Amino acid sequence: MSEDIKKEKEEDVTQEAPSSEAEEKQQAQEATPEEATEKTELAAALEKVEDFENKFLRAHAEMQNIQRRANEERQQLQKYRSQDLAKGVLPSLDNLERALAVEGLSDDVKKGIEMVQESLLQALKEEGVEEVPVDSFDHNFHMAVQTLPADDDHPADSIAQVLQKGYQLHDRLLRPAMVVVYN
User: Fold this and answer.
1) Angle at Cα 71 formed by Cα 66 and Cα 76, nearest 5°?
2) Residue ranges of region Disordered (predicted)?
3) Under a CB-based contact definition with an 8 Å cutoff, are residues 128 and 169 in contact?
């Protein structure tokens, strides 16, 4: 009888074993849609993370560009801050030159005008305003208001006379020099 009981237990165990394998397969099949859902949710979450990271990096780069442009603009404003003042003072310098060219001024008056002119020129020079050089004609710095025929002594594109001085602030032209050019 003990053998019969052992056989029955073995049969029960063998019967239970296949049923437990079947249950595992069934559980695996049931878990697969859940895992698939989790995987798609994970992939979607990773995609969102990547998208947010990309947006963050772009926003960060844009902020750096804005800061860089603002700094450059601030430097330009600082560099050319005296442009309007210089343009306002230049006609006064021209008038002082014309006054010095007048004959019949007493020495004291002439000396006073020269001192005012020198102080204005010095103040403009400290701000970076300089006269445009008039060595040879350059259409970027000079405005030809009259031409004269060139000859052996005066080659083409040389300046015959300066009618009005030109000025530049650093590398920016404030006013071109008005010149007479040999052509």
Assistant:
1) 125
2) 1-40
3) yes
Question: What are the pLDDT digits (tens) for 5-27?
Answer: 555 555 554 444 445 555 555 55
List for the chain the helix, strand, coil content (%; round to 5).
65, 15, 20
Q: Are 142 and 177 in contact (CB under 8 A)?
A: yes
Residue 103: left if φ>0, alpha if ψ -120 to 50, beta else—which one? Answer: beta
Whole-model pTM above 0.70?
A: no
pLDDT in tens, 54-88: 999 999 999 999 999 999 999 999 999 999 999 99
Where is 115: in which H helix or E strand? helix 107-126
| Lookup: tokens for 1 | 């009888």
